[in-house]
Amino acid sequence: MQKTEKTGLVLSGGAIRGIAHLGVLKFLQEAEIEPDIIAGASAGALVGAFYAAGYTAEESLAFFLKNKPITWRNYARRKPGILVFDRFAQSLAEQFPIDQFSALKKPLFITRTNLETGNGEIVNEGPLIKNLLASAAFPLLFAPIEINGVLYSDGGITNNFPIEPLLPLCKKTLGIYVNPLPQKTAAKLKTAFTVAERAFQISVTQTSLPKFRECNIVIIPKRLEEYSLINTRRIKEIFQIGYQAAFQERSALEKLFTK
């Protein structure tokens, strides 16, 4: 694939905040803006797969409202994580009956982290579902995913804004970053999980920020600062925040993608 007039879309990780990607995609669909190639990490990988398969934003939202991976029904027993993806994987299989990247309607690149070597990897071929689960296996919360005898975890650990595969292929690139980093008071950092969550957000932000200059536009829904990475009760609100953030950038988006 040559770098001609192709347009790229980068979707960051962000756990439940990743639903905001769907809100942005809803606006893009209404504006008849259709990126050609997608790259995503963690939650962005999941959303990217649905988009690459041809699902609308509303169809994808309905799936995530019905199939929430972060629920105590997915409690892990005797595994290195609090939750497992078993039920969620079964639901994904219904949406992606041909479990291959090649079955998608658009090219998709996703990140995963090799826990054995410590290296980040970008994949765009082979089995789809296990790689999606690996990319979304948020550390501490989800047990790692085994692929070909190797353990993998959240792609956002090593690359939470994977613009790299798009650079040689796309003339224009839109980024969506759903991990705005607010200030935190000590009063809000009193549990092991909130401290670990904060440390993870700081790390991924520091590695993602320098990449923003490679995008033509980066949408960062600031209101997501108020939302936890794991609270599934506010999914519809997060969806709307994504839509509103894209709407605010409508002039820049239309100018960029109608040239």
Describe this structure in words.
This protein is α/β, with parallel strands linked by helices and 259 residues long. Helices cover 34% and strands 14% of the residues. The protein has helices at residues 19-30, 43-52, 57-66, 86-95, 129-135, 192-208, 235-248, 250-257, and strands spanning 7-11, 37-40, 108-114, 120-123, 145-147, 150-153, 172-176, 217-219. Strands 1, 2, 3, 4, 5, 6, 7 and 8 form an eight-stranded mixed beta sheet that branches.
In short, what is this structure?
34% of the residues lie in helices and 14% in strands. The chain is globular. The model has no long low-confidence stretch (mean pLDDT 90).
Approximately how much helix is present in the residues?
25-40%
Ends apart, CA distance between termini = 21 Å
Biggest beta-sheet profile: 8 strands, mixed
User: Which structural class should the secondary elements be placed in?
Assistant: alpha/beta
Low-confidence stretches: none
**Strand runs, count:** 8
Radius of gyration: 17 Å
Helical stretch tally? 8
Task: State the order of secondary-structure elements, H for helix, E for strand.
Answer: EHEHHHEEHEEEHEHH
Q: Mean pLDDT, as a whole number?
A: 90
Q: Which overall shape is indicated by the principal axes computed on the Cα atoms?
A: globular
| Strand content bin | 5-15%
Descriptors:
alpha/beta, eight-stranded mixed β-sheet, 8 strands, 34% helix, globular
